[in-house]
Amino acid sequence: MIFILALALAQFPEASITNGRISAKLYLPDMNAGYYRATRFDWSGVIASLECNGHNYFGQWFEKYDPKLHDAISGPVEEFLTDGKGLGYDEAKPGENFVKIGVGAIRKPNEDSFHQFNTYEIADNGKWTMRKGSDWIEFTQVLGDTNGYAYVYRKKLRLIGDKLVLEHHLKNTGRKAIASIVYEHNFYMLDGTPTGPDIVLRFPFPLHATRALNGLAETHDREFRYVQELKSGETVFTDLEGYGPTAKDYDFHIENRKTGAGVRQTSDSPIARIVLWSIRSNVSPEAYIDLKMAPGTELSWKIAYEFYTLPKGN
């Protein structure tokens, strides 16, 4: 109770956008006072809450909060990795800097290997700017030369009807090529219903889970279903296979058959990998997109979330 009160009283830089159908509150990037100050996920576009048609889709799914905890974050957030590490991590010597896109230049400590869930020292958070309208918000981060890597990263969130659209643009302004993979860690909390048989995921291809689901969940043709309600401490984690090489397979639905809340997630880019991670408080299908950029080149990609309500009796 003390923790909840302290968090409620804390003041974090934030902004709200709405189009009359969708209303969302976002936490803003801030090196000193931001809600999220860890080094795993992109700092831009962190959604604290989103409501559409009377349904809630995102929120605080974790009990312990610390601004420098790697997963103390909410909504559809992204992490950029290169071979499971930060960009330029292997090249950097201890004391030199590597890169996490959307975070900045990270000081490499004297360690044997990269630790994805650690929070590292940020040497340079880059220059952040923000523009905003009533139903959109745009973040830009400019990072200068970091051991040969540099970029301009822009993310715009727009509300269009019953859709939230994430528009990304990355320009490689450094001397070295950028080879990364980015995934969307969604942290879905559809109306706060515990993960269980009421939650169903639908895909456009027949599913194969690469790991044992231990009697907690199952794949059934193109659906991923939970056999029982997950208890505190239980986790479902697996890669999913069956997708093809085109963007048409980046198209999946997450539905709460109890409350009627549904969301369709699509992209204009093909899936490079897809992971399904879930615990009692949230469900996270994580689709990865490959990024390969020579110096001086630019890439854009979109991810859209279409929110809907299931027919009664579905």
Describe the SSE topology.
Layout: H1 2-9, E1 14-18, E2 22-27, E3 46-52, E4 55-58, E5 77-81, E6 97-100, E7 104-107, E8 122-124, E9 127-132, E10 136-146, E11 149-160, E12 163-172, E13 178-185, E14 199-202, E15 208-209, E16 217-220, E17 223-226, E18 236-241, E19 251-256, E20 261-267, E21 273-279, E22 282-293, E23 298-309
Antiparallel strand pairs: 1-2, 2-3, 3-4, 5-13, 6-7, 7-8, 9-10, 10-11, 11-12, 12-23, 13-22, 14-17, 14-19, 15-18, 16-17, 18-21, 19-20, 20-23, 21-22
Low-confidence stretches: 1-6
Question: How many helices does DSSP assign?
Answer: 1
Helix coverage percent of residues?
under 10%
Rounded to an integer, what's the Rg over CA atoms?
A: 19 Å
Order of helices and strands: HEEEEEEEEEEEEEEEEEEEEEEE
Main sheet makeup: 10 strands, antiparallel
Mean pLDDT: 96
Shape: globular
Number of E-state strands: 23
Strand content: over 45%
Span between N and C termini? 38 Å
Helix-strand makeup class: mainly beta
**Widest sheet: strand ordering:** 9-10-11-12-23-20-19-14-17-16
